[in-house]
Design a protein that fits this description.
Length: 335
């Protein structure tokens, strides 16, 4: 009799089990390798933004303003609302896109610009890499971003009716910081850091509030309740790379990276950003807009000297706030 050579059912099941076990062992390593590659690409994007920032400073002797605002005597107006990172476009090989911008008018009337996806401003780990709003010609009206400029500790724009005082960060609305302004040292001052796209937002109960004296930065997320914040599930931060306002293209160092700022609404808990008022409002603009990322336990940041560093979520609030000031005189150095 001829014997047939073949696997038995038991042998086949054993082979399948072994293959499944090997896949289970390899999958975490593959995922870790992919995340490492994404984090490296994210750091490279920030490096390009840092080089663009330095080239801009070499050419213009200052950083770009994050929006230009003025007071008419009755209301705030946006003289040129375009963000600082929009003004860096020629230095990240987006010269053609920049040339089509009319900086003297609002971006809302220029969807051919605001709807464009700028790859350098997007982290590959972002899960909400898509546009917002609708336009009959371009589809989306705006596109999101993952890198925001450092607008300081807490105060963004105050005293709007009496002279407009900016914050203590590297960038600011209606402010063009020069290299000499960074007395803390360029290597000890944050320039840009990661943020999440379409992050939930809460705002102060009144956009017209003028605080006197200025409130101290909140010590913990729970302290934001003192401002009677209002929540709207359809309102977000970091949805428009063109907009020179803190909740769109900025961050502040009130809370360390990836701090959970929880807010409950309708039975759901959100991780939120907070602003008292927009820069175009007469009210004082204080903000807790936190640097966040999808990278485990860290965020990438570029400093004013152009170096890119990963900062752990466990960094102390004291150190993180010191890194956010351009001339605070702190003794802390970057971690």
């Amino acid at each position: 009799m001829r014997r047939r050579c073949a696997f038995t059912l038991v042998e086949l099941l054993v082979v399948i089990a072994i293959i499944g076990l090997l896949i289970a062992l390899l999958l975490p390593a593959v995922q870790a390798a992919r995340e490492s590659a994404r984090r490296a690409q994210c750091a490279n994007n920030l490096k390009q933004a840092g080089i663009a920032m330095q080239l801009y400073m070499d050419t213009n002797r200052s950083l770009p303003s994050n929006g230009i605002f003025s007071y008419t005597g009755a209301a705030m107006t946006q003289t040129s609302p375009w963000s600082a990172i929009a003004r860096l476009l020629p230095y990240i090989e987006q010269e053609n896109l920049f040339r089509n911008i009319d900086l003297t008018t609002g971006y809302s009337t220029q969807p051919g610009i605001s709807s464009k996806r700028v790859p350098t401003y997007l982290c590959p780990s972002e899960i909400k890499d898509y546009g917002s709003g609708t336009d009959p010609v371009y589809g989306n009206k705006n596109w999101t971003l993952n890198y925001a400029v450092n607008l300081g500790t807490w105060a963004v724009l105050t005293g709007k009716a009496s002279g407009m005082q900016g914050g203590d960060g590297a960038f600011g609305p209606s402010r063009w910081s020069k290299a000499r302004d960074f007395t803390d040292g360029l290597s000890n001052t944050l320039a840009l850091s990661e943020v999440k796209a379409y992050n939930a937002k809460i705002t102060g109960s009144s956009n017209a509030t003028v605080y006197s004296p200025a409130p101290a930065p909140p010590a913990s997320p729970g302290d934001l309740a003192a401002y009677s914040p209002a929540f709207n599930a359809t309102k977000f931060t970091h949805a428009e790379w063109v907009d020179g306002k803190v909740h769109e293209t900025g961050f502040t160092t009130v809370f360390p990276p990836n701090t959970l700022v929880s807010y409950s609404d309708g039975g759901e808990v959100y991780d939120v950003d907070f602003i008292t008022a927009t820069e175009s409002s007469v009210g004082d603009t204080f903000a807790a807009v936190t640097s966040r990322s999808y990278h485990p336990t860290t965020v990438n940041s570029v400093f004013m000297d152009g170096s890119v560093r990963a900062t752990g979520s466990g960094v102390s609030a004291l150190v993180w706030r010191a890194l956010g000031t351009r001339s605070g005189g702190e003794a802390n150095s970057s971690p």
